[in-house]
Amino acid sequence: ITTRETPIIIIGSGYGGAVSALRLCEVGKKVVMLEMGLNWEKSGIPFSSMLKPGKSSAWLKKKTIAPFMNIFSLTPFTGALDRMNFEHINIWVGRGVGGGSLVNGGMAVTPKQSYFKEVFPDLDAEKFYTTYFPLVHQELKVNVIGEQFLKECPYYQFTRVGEEEAHKAGFKTIRVPNVYDFQYMEKEYRNEVPRSALNMEVIYGNNHGKNSLDKTYLKKALETGNLEILDLHRVEDIQLNHDKTYTLNVRETDTSGAVISDKVFQCKKLILAAGTMGTLKLLLHSNAVNQFPVHEQIGKNWGNNGNFMTGRNWVKPLSGGTGSKQSTIPVGGIDNWDDAEHPFFTEIAPLPMGMDVATALYLLINRVDKKGEVSYHVGTQDLHLDWTPENTVKMKQNADYFVKKMNKANGGTRSHFLFHNGFGADVCYHPLGGCVLGKATNEFGKLRDHENLYVLDGSLIPGTIGVNPFMTITAIAEYCIENLIRQNEFA
Ligand code: FAD
């Protein structure tokens, strides 16, 4: 095995990794990015739709892993969506060059300033709302659906019905921005371009329309000529050397998951951007196998961002119900944060199944009053998550309150079709925390007890942000990397 030496390595190509790469490359630094997933764009392999799950639909699994209806068998392939199963919660993540941006719903939501302040009391909120959020809004190409299109398009009946019903029940709705290009969607609708959002593509990747990170930050970073992305390269563990550099044991695989070669990389500066669960796994596993130093705060303050799914069925589909045609891109939400007793946000979520299932789906985002903790289990050599139904008691009360109020005003029943008892407490798309900014790291993401190690991803956010998280993850990464560069950390 030969050792490759390189000054800066970033592990992971999601939001935190992509931001760090661009800003470092812009100031002339050479960066190597290691990503365990596939470079889909380069491979030329198309993403699958939800009606016909194929190569991109699951990370090395024999069956699909969608939140519902997993009736499809698969040939194992390094797909774009992965699921980690814990005792009381399942966590979905993206795999591939672009990380979660490949598979997510693209909802680009800026948190409420008051909640941001509560979650990050030490940050200058004013600066975030005048500088970093507007910056990432522009870089991520965030846009909003045209109201006229929304009103007329049959693929948004689920949003129109969802909003009408919410208003009837006395809830306040908001329009939700997205990184999916709505100009493109209007052309899809007119059949001028190939369809993606209107063709059941999203959680296994979008072939068109979505401005995922490979089309924004990563594209710009590659254009500097300073970034090299190595896909299908999984970092197994990290060692701290006497001279304070790092050695990485890396495994290159093919798309069936078979090993091509084992490699060793050495770097002076290491940025962990493997996503909340990926970063925690690397730190805690390396600690177990290599005595890698980890601060006592690592693993603490983990949360599911209050994710709680629920649904409603109509006995008799209301005014055509949510319809058989559904865009995969959500554009509506219910904002109930001002209710002191039941504060939550909920996405009016699509449920594109190719037929009218007379079901409305909601992903609630609640406060996380009781945080969980991530540790390492030596027996299984995997992460252990301390998270039980006790952590979601209040979330369940909110979901129950919401569904009852909606049903009272509009008819319908709690959906047993989607979830046992109508509640999906175990569905998590937004794992956050475990390497909290200012606790496990310094004020700019540099890990405590280390001189050349940084964390820049969702694990910096203490378990909750009140809305879908990628805008915040991106803004925090911009803030951290700007300050780290200013402090000459990468000189
Ligand atoms: P990630 O985007 O998770 O990127 C981490 C990358 O590191 C991955 O590509 C991974 O393969 C790689 N990696 C991990 N371990 C290793 C290793 N050992 N070696 C090499 N590479 C490694 N958020 C929103 O704001 N709006 C939405 O609409 C939304 N919808 C979602 C829908 C779904 C189905 C899912 C799963 C998530 C959704 N999210 C949404 C959440 C959002 O995608 C994540 O919060 C975000 O991607 C996290 O960013 P990150 O930078 O922390 O890491």
Q: What report would you give on this structure?
A:
The protein has 491 residues and is of the alpha+beta class. The protein has a single domain (3-486), classed as FAD/NAD(P)-binding domain (3-Layer(bba) Sandwich). The protein contains eleven helices and 21 strands. The strands form five sheets. Strands 1, 2, 6, 7, 8, 9 and 21 form a seven-stranded mixed β-sheet that branches. Strands 5, 11, 12, 13, 14, 17 and 18 form a seven-stranded antiparallel β-sheet that branches. The radius of gyration is 22 Å and the shape is globular. The chain starts with a strand and ends in a 5-residue tail after the last helix.
**Chemical compounds bound to the protein:** flavin-adenine dinucleotide
Give the CATH topology: FAD/NAD(P)-binding domain
The structural class is: alpha+beta
Q: Give me the count of strands.
A: 21
* Inertia-based shape: globular
CATH top level assignment: Alpha Beta
**What proportion of the residues form beta strands (DSSP E)?**
15-25%
Largest sheet: 7 strands, mixed
User: Which oligomeric form is depicted?
Assistant: single chain
Helices and strands, with pairings:
Layout: E1 3-11, H1 15-26, E2 31-34, H2 40-43, E3 81-85, E4 90-94, H3 113-119, H4 125-139, H5 147-152, H6 157-168, E5 173-175, H7 182-189, H8 217-223, E6 227-230, E7 233-240, E8 246-253, E9 259-272, H9 275-290, E10 300-303, E11 307-313, E12 332-335, E13 344-349, E14 359-366, E15 373-377, E16 382-386, H10 393-410, E17 413-414, E18 423-424, E19 427-428, E20 432-434, E21 453-455, H11 470-486
The chain binds flavin-adenine dinucleotide (FAD).
